[in-house]
Amino acid sequence: MDQGTMETLNEIKSLAAKQFGGESDLIDENAPVDRLGIDSLGFLEFLFELEDHFDISIPQERIAHVRTLNDLATAIDSLLAKKQATAN
Amino acid sequence: MHRVVVTGLGVIAPVGRNPSEFFDGLIAARSGIRPVASETIPQPHSLVAGQIDFDPSRYFLAHQAAQLDRATQFALAAASDAIVDASLELTEQQALRTGVYWGTGLGGATSIEESYRNFFVGNGRVRPTAVVMGMNNAAAGQISITYGFRGPVLNLSTACSSSASAIGEAYRAIRGGYADVIVAGGSEALVTLGNLMAWDAMRAIAHADPFDPSRSCKPFSANRVGLVLGEGAGALVLERSDWAVRRGSHIYAEIVGYGNTSDAFNISKPDSAGQVRAMRLALAEAELMPDEIDYVNAHGTATQIGDVVETNALKEVFAERSRPWVSSTKALHGHLMGASGAVEMVASVMALEHGIVPPTAHLDVSDPSCDLDYVPNEARSRELRAVMSNSFGFGGMNAVLIARRLPRIVR
Questions:
Q1: Disulfide-capable partner of B128 in A44, B158, B234, B395 (CB 3.0 to 4.6 Å)?
Q2: Strand B295-297 to strand B386-393: parallel, antiparallel, or no bridges (unpaired)?
Q3: Which residues in chain B have their CB less than 8 angstroms from residue A47's CB?
């Protein structure tokens, strides 16, 4: 895992802790999100917050296979990289 | 035909955040009406509303509350109190025969308004929860989900009579054997900028009383200037009487009559003929003579015409020598729109239970066109045999409920 992903993941975990309660250090990034007590609607709300936070748009096809927060960090990193490339 | 009794009460309203606080407030003529805060209406204004200091964190986790419109939060708070009050503990089988009948005028109006504001003038984004928070049946759904009630569910929207109709239809469903228990009531949260402006455009709402904003709503008083919006929710647990007796529940009252009629007259102007028919249908179903009704909780919105039309209807139904005490508690909590029928039915059932009639507050100047005994300004006590609660909605939609004390032998 590269440094960028780690940073993104930590931001995601801290946002998840803020939205759903609990401590970000205790969130298991490899657990399926529904096991973190996040239902499907809650997950959509969370994506909405992440889009605002990272100033990106997360297309549906990029999250179709997302099961864990780690998956999500990978997806967001690639979107951030794409955004960076477009800006350059 | 089963008999139907009330075994649980819940209310969250401008006068009180639980039934006893609410009823004590009504008896003491404590107003829950105050100027609308500048967070709601930024520009200078003179609007007032019945408002609740509501702390969602007392009832919900933050991420749960974020998925519930303010009206649905009220609904869950009131339903929870009613269910606890009724000591309702259901088996899986019983849950299949337990339902939710709910009433609301505009459902998740706060969420819809916020969504559109954000979309049109904000950052252009609509939250993913906008649909499920805004839809009219959100409260009924959330109550059913929270408590696992799997029986019949209905959401009624007949403007200001919504929750009275919900209670009436729930009574009929239990009576007819379609359910054993129903949590019935209604919720509304319309103290929003867009909604207040809409009502003001109709010239239907009172602006602040220049001397005391809390006294802006003056039903049946000659100096009345219109209705005052309120917010909140009311819930009643209705159940089959034999069921309630068997499990030893406290029984507040028996619901004995429900009248539902349409004026078929005008979309906003009420008509006493439709109201008279609704009251008479309820009386006939209750098998009560008009002189057996000791108290009427009036619709009494404090509009110029509405109070006169209702007065005329009451005079037609109740003979002069045996007229019941009539009061409008809206003077204190405002008009809770779709929730008003339920909140006022809670007040009516508590009046029956305690033998105390809440007054019509702020009735200072008598109006020759409103010449009934409205219990002005001070509560009165006496044993009440039966009470009637009137709710008349825009569209000419009338719902009248009658409750009576159970004979002691059944209690």
A1: A44
A2: parallel
A3: 128
User: How do residues B143-185 score in pLDDT, each as one tens digit?
Assistant: 999 999 999 999 999 999 999 999 999 999 999 999 999 999 9
**CB-CB under 8 Å, A20 with B129:** no
Indicate whether this model's pTM tops 0.90.
Answer: yes
Exposed/middle/buried for residue B409 (C-beta within 10 Å: 0-12, 13-18, 19+):
exposed
Around Cβ B120, how many Cβ atoms within 10 Å? 8
What whole-number distance in Å separates Cα of residue B304 and Cα of residue B282?
Answer: 26
Residues β-bridged to residue B207: B47
Q: Is the pLDDT of residue A2 over 60?
A: no
Closest residue in B to A49 (Cα) is: B127
Residue showing tokens 């696992």: B148
Name the pairing type of β-strands B397-404 and B386-393.
antiparallel
Q: How far is CA B50 from CA A41, B135, B190, in A?
A: 32, 23, 10
Q: Please give the structure tokens belonging to residue B163.
A: 């929750």
Q: CB distance B125–A48 less than 8 Å?
A: yes
Most A CBs within 10 Å: which of B60, B63, B135, as the mutation test of the A interface?
B63
Catalytic residue numbers of B, as ranges: 160, 299, 335
CA dist list (Å): B382 to B6, B70, B142, B320, B409: 21, 38, 39, 20, 21
Chain A residues within 8 A of B129 when measuring between CB atoms: 41, 44-45
